[in-house]
User: Which sequence fits this backbone?
């Protein structure tokens, strides 16, 4: 049997190994159609997928905020129309400790990017309904400096240059190993200047720390469940503005339809009881017929 690096072997220990072609075998990599040259016919490459016995992705970080300089948990937007590839990347990013949200086409991706609040955007160049590069160009035109990693089967030098000049911060050609994608995403977050990242939101005496995932009001800890934290984070990010139910469904629950349930009302009620009960003035307000708003107000009359 031909020899192969240990780094490949330990990922598949106990699984049957291919008897040939190991020189071309790269774990955790999906091959995609890639043009051999401009104007030439495109021939699909063979697809390489993880072996069936593999149950987890390779660990490439030591944890959020560790001594090796790895970044803390990030909120990442993935715009990718290949649902199989997207599901794989979402699982990998989650296992690495990050929060990842997915848009399956260019229009939905553009809307999510415009809503903002992401630490890094990973975007496929060729998308249905809207081209990936036009999304990046739109972000830069409105002075959105969120780091962007472009993914593409177009990997020639001029393709990469075009992507970077459109506003991308990095460019990764397909096929790629997930470990490299993760390393590039985390490197983009590290390179972003601290002054560009708003890590603490404040409204009145209410404070939310995105890095430590803690909330305090008047100096007292306010314990929240993960969904409640996300809900409060989105409200505070849009402090002083009406946030509609549709906006909450899309950005907090990742629903692009109305589930016809009272899930928002229940979570708003729970959140209000935690951040307003026993404090003055109330910060979380219902705007009848419109949605919700968090803002500093006047103390209740004595």
Assistant:
């Amino acid at each position: 049997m031909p020899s192969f690096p240990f780094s490949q072997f330990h990922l598949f220990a106990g699984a049957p190994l291919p008897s040939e072609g190991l020189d071309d075998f790269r774990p955790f990599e999906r091959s995609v159609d890639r043009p051999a040259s401009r104007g030439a016919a495109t021939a699909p490459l063979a697809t390489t997928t993880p072996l069936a016995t593999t149950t987890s992705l390779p660990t490439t970080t030591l944890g959020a905020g560790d001594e090796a300089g790895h970044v803390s948990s990030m909120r990442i937007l993935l715009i990718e129309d290949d649902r199989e590839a997207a599901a794989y990347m979402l699982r990998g990013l989650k296992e690495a400790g990050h929060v990842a949200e997915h848009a399956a086409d260019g229009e939905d991706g553009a809307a999510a990017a415009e809503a903002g609040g992401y630490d890094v955007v990973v975007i496929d160049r060729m998308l249905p309904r809207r081209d990936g590069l036009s999304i990046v160009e739109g972000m830069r035109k409105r002075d959105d400096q969120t780091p962007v990693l472009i993914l593409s089967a177009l990997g020639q030098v001029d393709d990469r240059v075009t992507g970077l000049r459109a506003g991308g911060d990095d460019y990764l050609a397909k096929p790629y190993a997930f470990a490299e994608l993760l390393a590039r995403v985390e490197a983009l977050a590290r390179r972003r200047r601290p002054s560009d990242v708003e890590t603490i939101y404040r409204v009145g005496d209410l404070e939310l720390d995105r890095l430590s995932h803690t909330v305090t009001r008047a100096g007292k800890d306010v314990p929240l469940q993960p969904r409640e934290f996300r809900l409060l984070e989105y409200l505070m990010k849009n402090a002083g503005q009406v946030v509609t139910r549709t906006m909450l469904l899309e950005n907090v629950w990742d629903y692009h339809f109305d589930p016809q349930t009272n899930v928002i009302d229940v979570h708003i009620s729970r959140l209000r009881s935690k951040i307003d009960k026993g404090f003055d003035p109330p910060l979380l307000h219902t705007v009848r017929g419109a949605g919700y708003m968090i803002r500093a107000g006047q103390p209740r009359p004595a």
